[in-house]
Amino acid sequence: xxxxxxxxxxxxxxxxxxxxxxxxxxxxxxxxxxxxxxxxxxxxxxxxxxxxxxxxxxxxxxxxxxxxxxxxxxxxxxxxxxxxxxxxxxxxxxxxxxxxxxxxxxxxxxxxxxxxxxxxxxxxxxxxxxxxxx
Length: 134
Description:
By secondary structure, this protein is an all-alpha fold. The protein has 7 helices and no strands.
């Protein structure tokens, strides 16, 4: 029960941090906010931000497996990576966009997450992004 509560708190903090960053990264093309989102992803996986998102898709999955919480966080991480891919695409950062999308796909495949699924906790963010509320 304590581990479950801890995991819920980690997810809640991650959703809050990612939502704030992705609003401006996707909506306004803010590179600073994209980097903030990357730091949040690295943080939730307990990885060094300077290393974590430079990893190949397979290596990122391996690190998630080793973290012990990868399965619990896979859908959230995959969603965030897909949104980062979208943000970087809008900024003309094709290489970063492709890497983030490849990482998202690898996470989804490895943890049997539905490709492109939107976790319930990100529905409000999705609505704001679709409505252009930044």
